Amino acid sequence: MLSACFNIVGFSWITSPAATELEMIVLDWFAKMLKLPDFFLSTGQGGGVIQGTASEAVLVVLLAARDIFLRKLGKGFLEKLVVYASDQTHSALQKACQIAGIHPENVKALKTDSSTNYGLSPDLLSKEICHDIANGLVPFFACASVGTTSSTAIDPILELANVTKSYNIWLHVDSAYAGSACVCPEYRHHIDGVEEVDSFNMNAHKWFLTNFDCSLLWVKDRNALIQSLSTNPEFLKNKASQSKSVLDYKDWQIPLGRRFRSLKLWLVLRLYGVENLQAYIRNHIELAIHFEELVSQDMRFEIVAPRTFALVCFRLLLPCGFEDRTNDVNGDLLQAVNSTGKIFISHTVLSGTYVMRFAVGAPLTEERHIDAAWKLIQDQASSLLEKL
């Protein structure tokens, strides 16, 4: 409410010094909570900025990386630029590539499977890069995911960085969902290797009690963003900006205008504090563990992918002779559960298997809600199995 009613348009420092400087402060606070490297701080060569969404975050760093290569090689090389990610990566990367003019055939979605818990294999990435270079292409950008949408799969950041660094490829880490959990020391290891990447993104508006929109992006080199995205028309020129002594966040994003989003994050951090925020995350994960245990106790169901955070991927098994209908029946079960209007679960497909996804993330969820949700799922499953 405060952020909206102030109606600040803090696109440059001079339009609202408070909005700009508070953003620098809260992004530094959050970086320290995540134990990010010093170059991601405002006092380093990079810094943090609040984007609207993770989709915007990946787009701006993709544009920065693209322009670094095109300045070096020439604009004619656009058709040769190649992007890499796993096939579990959010579709935001595909859209960013479309906007940035990357040819569709040069956007490589590398296959993952259960052998790596749907994480991207560094060996596969290295092999694909070598193949593309041999064919005259120019690898320039890779996106690693920590907590994919489908199953919260985790790409091995450090191992992937060892590959990308040897080819000077920009490595971006999309941790839109799971980044929040990494403020807890016991989950921080999931972003080990972040000191070797070029940019890192997580959404405070997903799992960190901050109203939409508030997507946090840190970059290793702020000049890469500024060179790609800055404009300087006469009507925006001012002594503060021209002195290079202040940050103008308009040059770190797609639009010119921007909201006072840092105020929302400041209030969350000040009202709750680190320990309460950690407890909030841990509680959701404990509730997800409870749901996972309930599923495991019913032999009619199976857990399909490892539960790492607060998402449980599971499915209903069918009796002998009906296995070929498993995907369809699970789809029917999801529809039946959601049609009651009491809970809402979503689905994905992993290695051709239809999977239901139970995500714990609402602030008021308690164990009794988990128990009631599981009973509802069991009852609907029993009803479907009786009709086979």
Automatic annotation (TrEMBL):
Single GO molecular function: pyridoxal phosphate binding
Pfam families linked to this entry: Pyridoxal_deC
GO CC terms: cytoplasm
Cofactors (names): pyridoxal 5'-phosphate
Sequence positions bearing N6-(pyridoxal phosphate)lysine: K206
InterPro entries in the record: Aromatic_deC (IPR010977), PyrdxlP-dep_de-COase (IPR002129), PyrdxlP-dep_Trfase (IPR015424), PyrdxlP-dep_Trfase_major (IPR015421), PyrdxlP-dep_Trfase_small (IPR015422), Pyridoxal-P_BS (IPR021115)
Gene Ontology BP, a term: carboxylic acid metabolic process
Protein keywords: Decarboxylase, Lyase, Pyridoxal phosphate
Family according to the record: Belongs to the group II decarboxylase family.
Protein name: Tyrosine decarboxylase
